[in-house]
User: Fold these one by one.
Assistant:
Number 1:
Amino acid sequence: MLFAKHIIVGGAVLNRKSRGNNVKAHVALVNPPYPVEAPQAIFIPLGICYLAAVLEEKGYVVDVVDCQTSQPSQQQLQDKFASLNPDIIGVTSATLTYLPALDILKAAKKALPNALTMIGGPHVTVMDQQVFTESPDVDIVVRSEGEQTLLELAGLVSEGNLKGLSDVLGITFRRNEQVYRNSDRPFIIDIDKLPFPAHKHFDVSKYKIMGKTYLPIITSRGCPFQCTFCAGYRMCGRGFRGRSPSKVVDELEWLRDSFGAGIFAFYDDTFTFDANRAMAICDEMQKRKMDLPWDCRTRVDRVSKELLTKLHGTGCQLIHFGVESGSQQMLNLMRKGTTVEQNAQAIAWAKEAGISVAISLVIGYPTETPQMLQQTIDFIYKTKPDYVYMCEAVPYPGTELYEYTKKLGLELNTDWTQYHEQTQVFKNDLLPLSKLEETKKQFYDKYFSPTYYLKKRRQGDYYSQVMARMALNHLVNKYRFSRWAFKQVGKVRSPKVSPGGHSTPSKQQQG
Ligand code: B12
């Protein structure tokens, strides 16, 4: 048995003696909180659930600490880690949650200096080298898909063989103050082989929206499209890998029967990328009499009238289209690969099929003019989608947009806690923050009218009720704000309209 007594990884010494030989490593996985000022979109993090599931399948003991449904202080976190006493502490993170994730590893190292700390997710996959200059508390960055990588790392820790780190694909690590970047790990080819994500670590009763447990499922990984603002391809690559329809519906049944799911969100980047596969999933759902409502996300050029009718027939009540802009010039610049006409056509088809339509828009993109933004507003009034998410353009590291803003010499705000798409993170003279906020406020004030509220209330289906609730929240906030503003003397700042993350109801919108 290999037994490395004291191997220094980063600042820490991993002393395996305390566990003894052949004891499988104990892993704690942590979901970091959102920065306080960001919209609090609380959803089960599938990444952590998949990581926990593959570890448990191989007999590792896993604990999950969720800092989104409860927000522990640094001291409480330290106490938690000390009481769990794991060998590995891993945290997930997007750009928005990167700094809170580093705080978690700080608490981890304080409580357990000998534990091996690691971080994964879209931000660090791209900014892996920087992590080591920004935090003394990280031993390993896991890049891209993490299931196989974490299994290998847990194996090495169990053996006390941290010398083997050099052979683990897809990691960047620090050893004796040096940072090493291993080669990329190829993507998992057959994602059907992955176990179902381990939701059991989360209190699913906390993921209720208007009385129904809302659970996510991912049926594919990878996206071949080139959208300049998206970092998804860095995580899952450009090759589409779909799960088989029968496995997908097995998971849906399991979510319903074991966790009381009353409604599903298909979180795939492009659920209908392969129309035949999407049809086959619907057939399987019909065969097994799955009659729960669901929503999905897709592209306008990946739907047809026939497909939309089929989706509706199996419970799809809401479809999210990444419309992005009403200006063809902007769509071209974003390399969206769609036209304004396709956007309008898909919205009309979905509505004809009886599916509500939510569209997401990217506003304030570099070089966008107020006239182009107006084209987007005009597009909304012309096509009348049921819900609109206006997201401010955010150049996430690893995206073409990130390089583009740099090329244009636009000054980037690197306070990552602002990367939630409801504020501007680069200086844009054509569409400054004040103009964007004013446009958004005016738009939502008009859009969420009492008529909208009543219409959605009358529509009766689940998602229309959620939209009615969102509109009501907006109307109440607007009324409160007008009263407050009336009482103020001097300049007042408009309240943030917060329709949630990308296609995401924010916490305040959940009931
Ligand atoms: C579904 C989804 C959501 C869902 C659920 C997110 C969640 N917490 O699970 C919702 C709608 C809530 C959401 C919200 C947001 N999202 Co989102 N989302 C996605 C999407 C489409 C899929 C993510 C997913 O579930 N993948 C499947 C799981 C299995 O993969 P994973 O989470 O990446 O985890 C794997 C690896 O990253 C790695 N890993 C991750 N963590 C760790 C930790 C350790 C220790 C290890 C070893 C490995 C590891 O292993 C995991 C298993 O393979 C991606 C696009 C994409 N294709 O990646 C965007 C994406 C992740 N989202 C993005 C963004 C911007 C957001 C928001 C900020 C948007 C907003 N306006 O609010 C919020 C913030 C979310 C957060 N918690 O920080 C960006 C992130 C870019 C960035 N650099 O931050 C992406 C990449 C899309 C894009 N525009 O580029 N999102």
Note: The chain has two domains: 4-181, 211-447.
Number 2:
Amino acid sequence: MDAADGGSEPVHIMGAGLSGLAAATILAKAGKEVHVHDIRADSGARFDGDFQALENWSMDVDFFDQLAEWGFDASTFRTTEFHVVDLIHPDDEITQPKSDKVAYRIVERGTSDHAIDQGMKQQALAAGAQIHYKSRVKEEDCTIIACGPKGTSAVAYGEIFETTHPNHIAFQLNDKLAPGAYSYLIIVDGVGLICTCLWRKQSKSERFLNETIAWYDKHYPDLNRKPIKRVGGKGDFTINQRYKQDGRYYIGESGGLQDFMWGFGMRMAVWSGVLAARDILGECDYETEVRKQLLPYVRTSVANRWLMNRVGDRTFKRMCRNWMKSQSKRGDGLVWVGGLFRPRWYKTLLYHLVTPFMLRKDAKSMGRGVRRMPFRKAKARDQWEPSEEASAIGTQWTEIRRSGAKTSFANDSDESSISSE
Ligand SMILES: Cc1cc2nc3c(=O)[nH]c(=O)nc-3n(C[C@H](O)[C@H](O)[C@H](O)COP(=O)(O)OP(=O)(O)OC[C@H]3O[C@@H](n4cnc5c(N)ncnc54)[C@H](O)[C@@H]3O)c2cc1C
């Protein structure tokens, strides 16, 4: 194998996730011989049927218009559009930011036919890319590195369940249930997901999920939740000094092209795959375009994360109020949240001021100068005893698991999730 920059040589891609498959499709369509290697048995196997949101607020252009412009067919996977969200304030008040535009689209991650990973895989295969699953390759033998998270900066745990509740989305800012982050409820066509994200490292982390589920059971009494399985995963948040090094392109989460604040990384994953493929085809310079098109968003998210790390429920409440005030004034709930994600000069300044303290060097980054946001320590306020309802939910899950239900969660390394497959 040759890690050269393309030419007539085959292009080897490490990782058949969203970013790797996006790059593979564009390259194969242009007539390149493309080999995608994935350590797992299938695309999406890192996830197990969890729902994720394709955000549509961080820029004026609709993500689906971007996909179409890049030549992707979004009808190869199932998406459910939402215009409204239940915003759950830390004091349990529920309000509803809304928009006439598509606010976000829910997709499924995993190996089901309608999952986004499978839709992207179909497109790569149709374009002529060859995908090799359970294939272990070396980084130095590949041109594109697209293998997702390496370290752990944050984790998310969720439960998937059957429900009779109609389609619905809720987003909750609550520092007890989701330390430093948020929890959410997604219901699509009779299947629900309750998930909590932990941006501070916890012992007995399952208690956060149980307590979060107990919260939703109490406030959404029509859920009729019948647990199916538990899922989860890690997020890796890094800033890279170089995105292309020694002829190799680092894309998606492998290149740190992720949202540090809340982990909305799918859009940047596909986008960076497109840019890497275009560079190989001689249409642009990846390093320049990543810095111009994607890094301003990443830097903004770093500044946002730094701020989030310093606040708790009082500020979360203020954020919820401001969000609703903005909606009353502008008539569109996307304006406030969009503003949070969009690059601003003062966030760039904050980024430069805080990163020396916030990030730690990754010695194993093959000279790319990678700095990672460490998984932060728990705070004293993260120690609490589970409620009776949460303990009962924990017991319910233990019984369901004994009868064969699965937990799929990759926390500390890719290895742990791979060996269980
Ligand atoms: C629980 C959870 C919820 C999330 N929710 C959202 C959301 O709602 N919205 C959003 O936009 N983003 C969300 N994200 C983030 C999003 O999933 C990632 O940003 C996105 O998948 C990154 O794409 P990628 O191509 O970089 O990596 P992936 O899509 O993860 O693909 C990486 C691939 O590389 C393979 N691989 C790993 N190691 C190797 C190796 N050594 N050799 C070969 N192959 C390898 C893996 O098996 C995998 O198939 C969430 C993440 C988690 C964990």
Note: The chain has two domains: 11-300+381-419, 301-363+370-380.
